[in-house]
Amino acid sequence: MSQMKVVIDIGGTGARFGLVKSQQVTSVGKASIRSVSELANAVMRFTKNITPSAVAVAVPGTLIGDKVQLSRNAGWLVGDTPAIIGNALGVSKDRVRIVHDGEAHVLALRRNQNVNFGAINFALGTSVAFGALDAGGRVLRSLSGDCWEIGDFMLNTSAKNKFLWHALGTAGLDELSRWTDDDGLSKYGSRLGNFVVQMSKIFRPRTVGLSGGIIKHNWGRIQEGFYEEFNRIKEFKKVTPTPQVIVRDDIADTAALIGLSTLIG
Q1: Considering the chain, what percentage of its residues have pLDDT values greater than 70?
Q2: Alpha-carbon distance values, 128 to 10, 102, 189, 213 (Å)
Q3: pLDDT per residue as tens digits for the range 160-210
Q4: Domains in the chain, ordered, with CATH?
C-alpha cells in the first residue's frame, strides 16, 4: 500500500495541498476547487496518480463530528464527508480525517515546542476561524460537540458591520484603513487585542495563537495597537492568567496544513 499521506486545506478560492513525510509537510501546491471531482483530480495530479494512504482535510463551515453540515465555500462536502472524499480518492473512509479550518490552525501549535496547553488560536483572513486545544493538546469543541463558529459574534466596535467575520476580517481591516486619518492598521490591532482579552477571560488559555493572511502581511503595523489592548489582561490577573502570545506570520500559508499533519503524520 502507498504510504503517501496528503493534507488538504480548502479555502474560499481553492485548496492547498501538502505531502506529509516524517511529520513534516512538504511539496505544497494549490488549485482552484469547486466540486469533489475537481478535488479528486487535483489531488491525483499532485500525487502523480498515487492513491494516498491517509488524508486529512480542513473545511470552512459547520461540522458536527467529522461531517460537514454547512459550508459556503464547499457545499459539495455536506453529508458524510469522510465517505464523500474517500470514495472520490479511493481511500478507505476510516483513513480520512475532517476538521474545521480553525481547528487545523490551532492544531499547528502542536508542532511548536514552546506552547503551553491549553491554547486558543485566531486565524484572521477573509473571515475569522477559531480553534481551541485543552490542557492535553487535544481539540476542544463546544458543549454540543459542534466546531466553534464565532463569525456571528457581535463586537462593541465602530465598524459599520459589527459581526466578527467583518470587523476582524479583511473587510474590517479595509474599512478602518479608509475611515481613519491615522494608521488604520494600528486601530485594527487595538480591536483585535480587545477581542482576544475578552476570549481569554472566557477560555483562560495558557497560549494564544495568531495566524492567517492578515497576520502574515500586516503584523508589523498591527502589533503595537494589539499589545496596548492585550496587556490590559494583567488587570484581571487574580482570576485570569496572562497567556503567552505566539504570532505565526512565518507559516501563514501553511499553518492549516501543518496542523492537519498532526492528525495523520
Answers
A1: 97
A2: 15, 8, 14, 11
A3: 899 999 999 999 999 888 876 668 889 999 999 999 999 999 999 999 999
A4: 5-101 (3.30.420.40), 105-247 (3.30.420.40)
SS3 for 137-205 is CCECCCCCCECCCCCCCECCCCCCCCEHHHHCCHHHHHHHHHHCCCCHHHHHHHHHHHHHHHHHHHHCC
In whole angstroms, give the CA distance from residue 132 to residue 103: 7
Each residue's pLDDT tens digit, 208-236: 999 999 999 999 999 999 999 999 999 98
Helical H runs in the chain? 36-46, 81-89, 101-107, 164-167, 170-179, 184-203, 213-230, 255-264
Upstream peptide bond of 118 is cis (omega within 30 degrees of 0)? yes
Q: Name the β-bridge partners of 20.
A: 5, 25
User: Which residue type occupies 254?
Assistant: T
C-alpha span between 194 and 187 (Å, rounded): 11
C-alpha grid cell, residue 197:
482579552
Angle at 164 between CA 225 and CA 12, to 5 degrees: 105
pLDDT tens column, 86-106: 999 999 999 999 999 999 999
Query: Percent helix, strand and coil across the chain, each rounded to 5?
Result: 40, 25, 35
Beta pairing class for 54-59 and 5-10: parallel
Rounded to whole angstroms, the Cα distance separating 201 from 90 reads: 45
Task: Judge if pTM exceeds 0.90.
Answer: yes
Report the C-alpha gap between 118 and 105 in whole angstroms: 14
Other C-beta atoms closer than 10 Å to the C-beta of 214 total 26
Q: Name the grid cell of 182.
A: 491615522
